[in-house]
Amino acid sequence: MRPIKIGFAPTRRSIFSAPAAIEFANLTRARLRELGVEFVDIDDINEEGLLYQECDRLKIEEKFRTEKIDGLFLPHGNFGTEYECARLARALQVPVLLWGPRDERPDENGVRLRDSQCGLFATGKVLRRFCVPFTYMTNCHLTDPEFERGIKTFLGVCSVVRTFRSIRVLQIGPRPYDFWSTMCNESELLERFNVQLAPVPMPELTAAIRAAKEEGTEVAKVVAYCREAMNIEVTDSQLEMVAALKVAMQNLCSKYGCNAVAIQCWNALQDEIGIMPCAANSLLNEEGIPCVCETDIHGAITALMVEAAAMGKKRSFFADWTVRHPDNDNGELLQHCGPWPISVAKEKPSICYPLAFDYPGAVAAEAKHGEVTLARFDGDNGEYSLLLGKARGIDGPYTKGTYLWVEVENLKRLEAKVVEGPYIHHCVGIHEDVVPVLYEACKYIGITPDLYDENDAEIKAYLRGE
Fold this sequence. Notes:
Blueprint (H helix, E strand, L loop, with lengths): L4 E4 L9 H17 L3 E3 L13 H14 L3 E5 L6 H11 L3 E4 L16 H14 L5 E2 L8 H20 L3 E5 L13 H8 L2 E5 L1 H14 L1 H13 L1 E2 L3 H21 L3 E4 L4 H6 L4 H9 L4 E2 L4 H13 L6 E9 L6 E6 L13 E3 L9 E5 L3 E11 L2 E12 L7 E6 L3 H10 L5 E5 L4 H11 L2 E4 L4 H8 L3
Parallel strand pairs: 1-2, 1-3, 3-4, 4-5, 6-7, 6-9, 8-13, 9-10, 14-17, 16-19
Antiparallel strand pairs: 11-12, 11-18, 12-17, 13-14, 15-16, 15-18, 16-17
Helix pairs in contact: 2-3, 3-4, 5-12, 5-14, 7-9, 8-9, 9-11, 14-15
C-alpha cells in the first residue's frame, strides 16, 4: 500500500505572536518526522512556513494538489486564520485534521502569546459553515500520548477514504440465482460513491485460465508456494487449476485496473473448470487483493475498507454468520468454504473438498483467536451504512472450511441488526481493532456508522483523546 501523505499547513493570526507560531510549527514538524509521518510542507511558500494570507493559500493549494495529498493537517500555532483554513480544506476535498498545542501559562504580566484553543473553536465553526467534515484531535502537548494516537488514527482514516474513493471491483459472472441477498445497485454505487464494477463473463475467465496455463511460469510458482504453505489433498491437475485460476484472476485485475474481486463461485464455475474457487480466492486474499464469494459486491467494498483501516498491514477474511455457539450464548460461528488468507490461520491450511459441494479446491483451517473487528458495508432503498464492532476468538467445535468461533458482547442485539438490515449473512473480519478508524472515516464518505455494540459514546471519547 502506498504510504499516506498529508499536507502540513500550520496557521497563525496576525494579532498573536508570530515567533511563537513559527516555533510550534517547527516543533510539530519535528514530532511528525519522529513518528515517521510522510508530509508535504509549506516552508517554501513564505518565510514563516505558515498559512495566514490568501495569496499563500492559493500557492499551498496548488502544491498540495500536485503532490496528491491524502489528508490535510491544520495545526494552530496560535489562534490561526480560520477562513483560510476553511477555504483550503474545501478546495482540496480530503480528510482534515484540526489540532492545536496547549497554551503556556500567561507570563508575569498576564500576557498570552497564542490562544490556540480559542482559534480551534473558531475554525471548527467556519469549517462547518463551509460544509467541510473534519476530524478533531484534542488540544494537547506534542509529547502527550493523545497526539500520537490521534495522528495514527487520522492516517488510518485517510487510508480508508483514499481506498473508498478509488474502488473498482472485478465482477466475475452475475450473482448466483439463489443469492438475492447479494444483489446491488451498480448505478447508485457509481453515482454516489464512484465505486466502479468491471463485469467479466465466464468465457473470458476460462480464456484467461487457458492463457495462464500456456504461459506456465506464474502457475508453476503458485503451485510450488501451495505445496510449501499448505497441505495438499487434491490431485496434481486440480492443484494446477487452482493456481491457474489465481493467476487468471490476478491478470484480469491488472487488465481492468481493479483492486478487489467478487466471483460467482457456484455453480457454473465448477462445471466449467472442475474445482471450487475458494483456494484461488485465498491466495489472492493473501496478496492483498480481496476476493469474495457469491458475487457479493458490498462484501468486496467492506474488505477494501477494513484492510485500508489497518494500513494494509493485515489481511481480512470474508465470512458467513452461520450458527450460534452450542455452549456460549454470545458465541457465533464465522465460516466459509475456504477463501480466507493463509496468514489468518492458526494451523497449516489444507486444500481439500468443501462441506457442501462435490468439487475440490476449498481451504480448511481454523483461524487465529484474539481480538477482531467485524464489519459490513451494505444498503437498501438508497440508504447505506457500515455495521461494525469488536469480537474475540474463542474455542468451539471443529467444523469444515475456514472458520472461527467468536464471542461478542450481546449476540441478540447483533443478530437483530443483521436480520433487520440493511445487512446480510456476510461480514468481513480482521485481527485488529480498527473500529474507531472506520467510524471516523464514515463522515468523509457519506455513510452511517452502525455500532452493533451500541458504544457510540465510547468511540467518540476515544477519538477525542479520552
